[in-house]
From TrEMBL:
<dbReference type="Pfam" id="PF00211">
    <property type="entry name" value="Guanylate_cyc"/>
</dbReference>
<dbReference type="InterPro" id="IPR003660">
    <property type="entry name" value="HAMP_dom"/>
</dbReference>
<feature type="domain" description="Guanylate cyclase">
    <location>
        <begin position="397"/>
        <end position="528"/>
    </location>
</feature>
<dbReference type="InterPro" id="IPR029787">
    <property type="entry name" value="Nucleotide_cyclase"/>
</dbReference>
<protein>
    <submittedName>
        <fullName>HAMP domain-containing protein</fullName>
    </submittedName>
</protein>
<dbReference type="Pfam" id="PF00672">
    <property type="entry name" value="HAMP"/>
</dbReference>
<keyword id="KW-1133">Transmembrane helix</keyword>
<dbReference type="InterPro" id="IPR050697">
    <property type="entry name" value="Adenylyl/Guanylyl_Cyclase_3/4"/>
</dbReference>
<feature type="transmembrane region" description="Helical">
    <location>
        <begin position="12"/>
        <end position="32"/>
    </location>
</feature>
<keyword id="KW-0472">Membrane</keyword>
<feature type="transmembrane region" description="Helical">
    <location>
        <begin position="284"/>
        <end position="307"/>
    </location>
</feature>
<dbReference type="InterPro" id="IPR001054">
    <property type="entry name" value="A/G_cyclase"/>
</dbReference>
<keyword id="KW-0812">Transmembrane</keyword>
<feature type="domain" description="HAMP">
    <location>
        <begin position="308"/>
        <end position="360"/>
    </location>
</feature>
Length: 581
């Protein structure tokens, strides 16, 4: 028996699919729902966080600018006179020291004439009296009191903005300041959203005012730098109250919110990488994926264990069925699982026992059929009584038949032809013997011995024996006609007699026959030997019992071999068709 191994198919695959789906579907459903709900919650928190951070950053930038304008306001408190004002010069220089973001200051009197100019990078001037009324800053501050100019880049790098403020009366004049916006970097750099989130400031046209990466600011109006920042600002505007998503200057996906800086018409944008913003969601998805992998491994192991637990008994069952199929009905399948498989094994064992009984019965019937009609053999087997086969004295009708001229025929033709003729012969007689439920006790060459009324008694055995002999004669004569057309000179004779005989089994343990011993057997054999072709000879006992029922012709007294006295012999007439019993 080839040892079978558990493969990755069959029960293992089925168990794995069922267990995998049983584990994966709940985990996947739970993980997806958790991720979706977590995403919604996290997005709401992100909107709130970025919105608060944007407004807070805007307030800080606004505070930075308000701090500068408050300081500038002290320079436009007193009206100008025609004389030089040394005190104002000292205040302006002190303001430059106090506010590093201011690069230069220009003080104008009520007639918009320059009275004082102080600078960190240029030469100071005093009382130049240059008319500045046409300057954009002066015109703007006359109408709004506080004016913010556009952002410009000094030497195409550092951002600057002109800021002007006028006094509450025209006589106090105007102060114009050049503010270096690079110093807003300190404010922007201090703004952190999460671990890597940041903020940056764009002016109205979309130029970069401040960014934590000062190198981006120092690039000035470089379009390749400004384009992604403008796209983020536009995405925020389109999103409205929702969080916008986009790509920063480094190509990283970010979530962003914005708040305005009212005075200079700036926009401060705060952003946080999506990988950080939704890190809890990604972590939940990775946890779910890990659980799915663990569940898959668990399902695989459990499927392997269950399939192995199932396949071992199944292999035992397969081996058992093969052995039982090979006829080893004494083989028993030992499975002690306490479940349906054990009950199945018990059923197989019970089946094997029944098959053993059935085989024994079939063998018994086969032995009985060697000398009994199949119907009689079945009857004896169902009754379970072999007493009818034991030796006893009873009345029987012995029927002998053989072929005439067979010895000469078999000596002349090939063995194959002899066997073919005998096959036809026995087939024809066998069907008739079975039909009349007679008992075939022996056959030798072309001769047969048949008993009627033994071992199972029958009604009117003499009449049944005569009808049996008639049908045998008619059937064989059909064969004889064909044989004669082939040139075979063969005939068929039958003899029968009735009387007491000893009947029973004879032989040894593994081989026995059922036979009859007595003078009636010898008489039937002698009558068969005396019968010519197409002749059925019977003794007086049979003739007396069938007289008036079947046509008989007395042959008179004949000297029969083995008998001292002549016996009365009768010949049975052959009808065109055998009469039915």
């Amino acid at each position: 028996m080839t040892r079978q191994r558990l493969g990755f198919g069959g029960l293992f695959l089925k168990y794995f699919l069922v267990l995998f789906l049983a584990v994966v579907i709940p985990l996947a459903t739970n993980g997806i729902s958790e991720a979706w709900l977590g995403y919604r919650d996290q997005r709401t928190r992100l909107e709130q966080l970025l919105g608060v951070e944007a407004r807070s950053a805007g307030a800080k930038i606004q505070g930075f600018l308000d701090g500068i304008t408050d300081q500038l306001g002290w320079l436009v408190q007193l009206p100008w006179t025609e004389e030089p004002d040394e005190r104002r010069r000292i205040d302006a220089l002190r303001l430059l020291r106090q506010v590093p973001a201011i690069a230069s200051l220009t003080l104008l009197d009520g007639t918009s004439r320059e009275r004082l100019y102080v600078s960190r990078i240029g030469l100071n001037r005093s009382e130049s009296r240059t008319d500045r009324s046409a300057d954009e800053a002066v015109a703007g501050v006359r109408s709004a009191r506080l004016w913010y100019g556009k952002v410009s880049y000094y030497r195409d790098s550092e951002p600057y903005m002109t800021l002007a403020i006028s006094g509450n009366r025209p006589s106090v004049g105007v102060v114009v300041a050049e503010v270096n916006l690079k110093l807003i970097w300190d404010v922007i750099a201090a703004i952190k959203i999460g671990q890597t989130g940041q903020a940056f400031v764009l002016d109205g046209p979309g130029r970069l005012v401040a960014h934590p990466d000062i190198s981006l600011v120092l690039r000035g109006a470089d379009e390749s730098t400004l384009a992604p920042l403008r796209e983020i600002r536009e995405a925020v505007r389109r999103a409205g109250a929702d969080v916008a998503t986009g790509w920063d200057a480094d190509g990283i996906a970010v979530a962003a919110a914005a708040a305005p800086v009212v005075g200079p018409d700036w926009t401060i944008v705060v952003e946080q990488p999506l990988s950080e913003a939704f890190r809890p969601i990604y972590a939940a998805l990775w946890r779910t994926l890990g659980l799915l992998l663990a569940g898959g491994v668990f399902a695989c192991l459990l499927a392997f264990i269950l399939a192995r637990r199932m396949t071992k008994p199944i292999h035992l069952l397969e081996e058992g069925t093969q052995r039982i199929g090979a006829g080893q009905f004494n083989y028993r399948i030992e499975i002690k699982t306490g479940d349906e498989l054990q009950r199945l094994a018990d059923s197989f064992n019970a089946m094997a026992a029944e098959l053993a009984v059935s085989q024994e019965r079939q063998e018994r019937i086969a032995k009985l059929k060697r000398f009994l009609a199949p119907q009689v053999a079945e009857l004896v087997d169902r009754a379970g009584d072999d007493d009818v086969l034991e030796g006893r004295r009873t009345e029987v009708v012995a029927v002998f038949c053989d072929l005439r001229g067979f010895t000469a025929f078999s000596a002349k033709v090939a063995p194959e032809e002899v066997m073919s003729l005998l096959s036809e012969y026995y087939d024809a007689l066998g069907r008739i013997i079975t039909k009349y439920e007679a008992t075939l006790t022996s056959f030798s060459g072309d001769g047969l011995m048949v008993l009627v009324n033994a071992p199972v008694p029958v009604a009117d055995p003499a009449l049944k024996a005569v009808d049996l002999a008639v049908e045998m004669q008619l059937s064989v004569q059909d064969l004889v006609a064909g044989w004669q057309r082939q040139g075979y000179r063969i005939g068929f004779g039958v003899g029968l007699a009735k009387g007491s005989a000893t009947v029973g089994r004879i032989g040894y343990e593994s081989r026995f026959d059922y036979t009859a011993i007595g003078s009636v057997v010898n008489l039937a054999a002698r009558l068969c030997a005396s019968a010519t072709d197409r002749e059925i000879l019977t003794d007086a006992t049979v003739a007396n019992e069938v007289n008036g029922k079947r046509a008989l012709n007395p042959m008179g007294l004949r000297l029969i071999k083995g008998y001292d006295e002549k016996l009365l012999v009768y010949r049975v007439s052959l009808p065109e068709k055998p009469s039915a019993t």
